[in-house]
Specification:
By secondary structure, the chain is α/β, with parallel strands linked by helices. The chain has 16 helices and 13 strands. It is 38% helix and 18% strand. The relative contact order is 0.18. It is an enzyme of class 2 (transferase).
Length: 485
C-alpha cells in the first residue's frame, strides 16, 4: 500500500472508539476535502429526517383510509393477523419462507415448558426461475416442500398445518388469501401479479399429488418478525426488515384500519406498511442523489420502491460502487485508475461495505476488498476515502430506517415498545444497530421508550407460529389477542 511519509502511523481508530453523535465528528483527517464535499449529498440532517417523518406519517394514514388508500403510495396492507403467540401452542408446524434468492422450508415443534425445536433447509431459487413463469416458481417451491417432508419422514396422512412467508407486496383479503401487488428484489415472474399466491401454491402442490398441506396463514417477513419476537416478548409491536429489501409492520387499532373487514371484536390487527414504496410520488426527491437515480433507472422496477433502494442490502453496495466510479473518474480516487471489476454493475456487494467498516486497524479488510475488486496498491488516503464513502452510505441507510421507525412509534404513542428486527444488513453490518438506536431515539417523542430485539429466524419461525396460533384458536378454551395497554 502506497503511503506518504508524513502519514505513517496516522491510521484511523476503530469505529467503536469514535464519536458517532450528530454529524461526522470522528477523525476524518485522512479523508480528502474533495471526497467530503462530494459525499455531502449522502448526509441527512435531523431537519431533513423530520420532514421525511411527517411525509411518512401522512402516507401511512392515507394507506389506512378507505377513501385515500387507492391513491396512497404506502399501501398499509391489513394482514388479518390479530393474535400473538401466548405459550399454549402445541404440535408440529411447517413453514415456507420465500423472500429473496434463497427459499427455506422449516419444521417447528412446540411443546410444554417452552419446548421449541426447529429443523430447516435452504433451497436456491435459480435466476431463471426468479424472472420466468410464475407456475415454474411455485412448482419449484412445491418440489422443495415435498423433498423436505420426505426427508423428515413426516406423517402426511392428514394435512400438515403450514404458514407461508411471502415477502413481497401483498394485498390480503383474509388470513389465507393474498394478491401480489408487485414484484420487488429482482423477481419478475409472469402470471403472478394480481393473483392469489396461496391459490398458486395450493395448485402447485396439487399437481404433485404427493403431499397434503393446510395453509393456515400467509404473511410477509415483517409480520413473521413480530410473531417470532412476540413468542419471547409480548411487548413486540413493530417488526422491521433491513436485508435484501426493507419493510416494516406494526400493531394498529382495528378502528384505524378502515379497510379491515375481519373480526372487529378484537381490538388490534397487524398492518404491513410496505414502506419501501415511500417516495415513489416524489417525496424523497430532495434527498435522492444521482447514484440513487441511476440505480432506480437501471432496476427491474424503475420508479418504484425508491425508499427501499436507498436503504437495503440489494442496493447499498451498488450505491458505494457508483460513488467510487464517479469519484475515480474525476481523479479524486485511485489517481483515476479503475479496474474492470469496479466498472461492473453489481460487482461491489453490500457485504464489502460491512467488511470495510469492520476494519480495526491498518485497513486490512479494505485492502482485501479492493484487491478482490481489482484495485491494487491503493494509497492510505484512498483507503480512508473508500471507507468514508461506505460510512456515508450505510449511515444514511440506518437513519432512513430510523426516521420510519420514529414515525411509527410517534403515531402509535405507546409508552413502551419492543421492535423486532431482522435482515442481513442489520445482522451483519458492524454498527447498524447502534446507528439505528441513536437516531431513532433522537427522532422519537421523549416519553416513548423502545428497544430493538434481534429476531431469531423471524420470517420462518414467525410463519410457523402464525399456523400454530391459527390451530390454537380453533380451541375455544384458549385466550388470544394482543395485550392491551
Amino acid at each position: 500500500m502506497r503511503t506518504k511519509p508524513e502519514m505513517m502511523g496516522q491510521l484511523r481508530p476503530a469505529f467503536s472508539e469514535l464519536n458517532i453523535s450528530e454529524g461526522f465528528e470522528f477523525d476524518t483527517e485522512l479523508v480528502t476535502n474533495e471526497i467530503k464535499e462530494d459525499c455531502k449529498s449522502l448526509l441527512l440532517s435531523n431537519e431533513q429526517l423530520t420532514t421525511l417523518m411527517k411525509d411518512m406519517d401522512g402516507a401511512i394514514r392515507n394507506g389506512l383510509g378507505k377513501d385515500t388508500n387507492p391513491s396512497s403510495i404506502v399501501k398499509c396492507y391489513v394482514t388479518y393477523v390479530q393474535d400473538l403467540p401466548n405459550g399454549t401452542e402445541r404440535g408440529k408446524f411447517l413453514a415456507l419462507d420465500l423472500g429473496g434468492t434463497n427459499f427455506r422450508v422449516l419444521l417447528i415443534e412446540l411443546g410444554e415448558n417452552n419446548y421449541f425445536h426447529m429443523d430447516s433447509e435452504i433451497f436456491k431459487v435459480p435466476a431463471h426461475i426468479q424472472t420466468g413463469k410464475g407456475s415454474e416458481l411455485f412448482d419449484h417451491i412445491a418440489k422443495c416442500l415435498a423433498e423436505f417432508i420426505k426427508k423428515h419422514n413426516l406423517d402426511n396422512k392428514k394435512a400438515l398445518p403450514l404458514g407461508f412467508t411471502f415477502s413481497f407486496p401483498l394485498r390480503q383479503v383474509g388470513l389465507t388469501k393474498g394478491y401480489l401487488n408487485s414484484w420487488t428484489k429482482g423477481f419478475n415472474c409472469s402470471g403472478v401479479v394480481d393473483e392469489d399466491v396461496v391459490r398458486l401454491l395450493k395448485e402447485a402442490i396439487k399437481r404433485r399429488k404427493d403431499v397434503e398441506i393446510d395453509v393456515c396463514g400467509i404473511l410477509n417477513d415483517t409480520t413473521g418478525t413480530i410473531m417470532s419476537c412476540a413468542w419471547k416478548n409480548p411487548n413486540t409491536k413493530i417488526g422491521v426488515i433491513v436485508g435484501t429489501g426493507c419493510n416494516a409492520c406494526y400493531v394498529e387499532k382495528v378502528e384505524n384500519a378502515e379497510l379491515f373487514d375481519g373480526d372487529k371484536t378484537k381490538p388490534h390487527v397487524i398492518v404491513n406498511t410496505e414502506w419501501g414504496a415511500f417516495g415513489d410520488d416524489g417525496k424523497l426527491d430532495a434527498v435522492r442523489t444521482k447514484y440513487d437515480r441511476e440505480i432506480d433507472e437501471d432496476s427491474l422496477n424503475p420508479g418504484r420502491q425508491r425508499f427501499e433502494k436507498m436503504i437495503s442490502g440489494m442496493y447499498m453496495g451498488e450505491i458505494v460502487r457508483l460513488a467510487i466510479v464517479d469519484l475515480a473518474n474525476q481523479n479524486k480516487l485511485f489517481e483515476g485508475r479503475l479496474s474492470e471489476q469496479m466498472k461492473t454493475k453489481g460487482a461491489f456487494g453490500t457485504s464489502f461495505v460491512s467488511d470495510i467498516e469492520g476494519d480495526k486497524a491498518n485497513y486490512k479488510e479494505t485492502l482485501k476488498v479492493l484487491s478482490e475488486m481489482g484495485i491494487n496498491d491503493p494509497s492510505l488516503v484512498d483507503c480512508a476515502n473508500v471507507r468514508y464513502i461506505c460510512e456515508c452510505v450505510s449511515r444514511r441507510s440506518a437513519h432512513l430506517v430510523s426516521a420510519g421507525l420514529a414515525a411509527l412509534l410517534n403515531k402509535m404513542d405507546e409508552k413502551s415498545v419492543t421492535i423486532g428486527v431482522d435482515g442481513s444488513v442489520y445482522r451483519f453490518h458492524p454498527y447498524f444497530h447502534k446507528l439505528m438506536v441513536e437516531k431513532t431515539k433522537q427522532l422519537t417523542k421523549s416519553d416513548i421508550k423502545f428497544d430493538l430485539m434481534l429476531s431469531e429466524d423471524g420470517s420462518g419461525r414467525g410463519a410457523a407460529l402464525v399456523a400454530a396460533v391459527a390451530v390454537r384458536d380453533e380451541l375455544p378454551s384458549m385466550t388470544n389477542g394482543f395485550s392491551a395497554k
